[in-house]
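User: Hi! I'm a student and our assignment asks us to look at how structure tokens line up with a sequence. Could you show me two examples?

Assistant: Happy to help. In each example below, the sequence comes first and the structure tokens follow. Example one:
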Amino acid sequence: MKDFMPIIASVLGGLVVAMGWFRTARLNRENNIHLKRLDYRIKVASIEAKDLDRANKALPPLVALIKQGVRGELSIGA
């Protein structure tokens, strides 16, 4: 058992590092999603302000983003 301790310690250390990478990747992804949502909220605010020109420019990317999100949740190929 004494001979296996360094191996076990290195495997557990590797698992901790891998879990940290996945957690960091998830946090970064969530941050990007929040920033993109904020960006579109700012653009779509033009709809509420009844600025038709800005609203028409803001809607197509928003519609595409929503379609991609729904397709991703349903696992439908884009």
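Example two works the same way, sequence first and then tokens:
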Amino acid sequence: MTELLLSEISESQDDLLRTFSLIEEFIFDDSSRIKDLLEPVIANCQEQLAEYEDQFEQAEHLINTLYVDHLFLDNERKKWPSLSFQLASAFENRMMFPILKAAIIQHIATECGFESDLVFVPEKTMVRLVCNESYAIIFDPLSGESLNFHELDTRMEELSAAPEQYHLAPMDVNILVVEYLTACKNALIGEENFNTALRCVDLLVSLRPEDPLERRDRGFLLHQLDCFKVACDDYRFFVEQCPEDPAAQLLKIQLDNIKITNTVIH
């Protein structure tokens, strides 16, 4: 099932909303209604933009329509609930995890005739809305606030490249998927929804099979679900790969004690 999903994700890389719809269906076992929910929003945006001819004015008005008329405005949160990782529920409650929200905005922009993508500007994933060959608006998907040239230069100075070498390439879809899955996993663990969190980790391990932290987390979840014998393999991998990690040292003691106990019993 996981391999099939990864294949479908690979084929849908040009459609970020479809990518997250596929992932959501796998994790939450529910088909997303998001495109049906977005239809009236798209229709309203198209109607509003028809009043403007200049594409820059259209872009500004699109952002204003989404964040004011359709209540996309939100604040940064330290923790996002699992609801915010499910497209339809997140949209209906206007509590969308930033990457999910960016994917929704990108879909709306595409339907309104704009070219758009997601870019990383330290320290955030932002939406780039292309107005013409020489100008684009880069804005925060949470607040809708755009960056001016000075703000962009200031943020890009954090990178090692010289200013003339700055190039904002579109973000890799796999990076976005990993960030989404990691945050979703943490939200589900915080809510003690271990079965669903395990589906996130299974995908993460499939994407990054040699990552010891993902193997540690899968071991933890399997342990919580009373599958300790299976969890041990992941715990051992983590201990071997990260011997200096305090958590690994504690796990090693626990694993050694289990081995000793087994030997005594047999």
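Here is something you could point out in your write-up. The chain has two domains: 2-165, 210-265.
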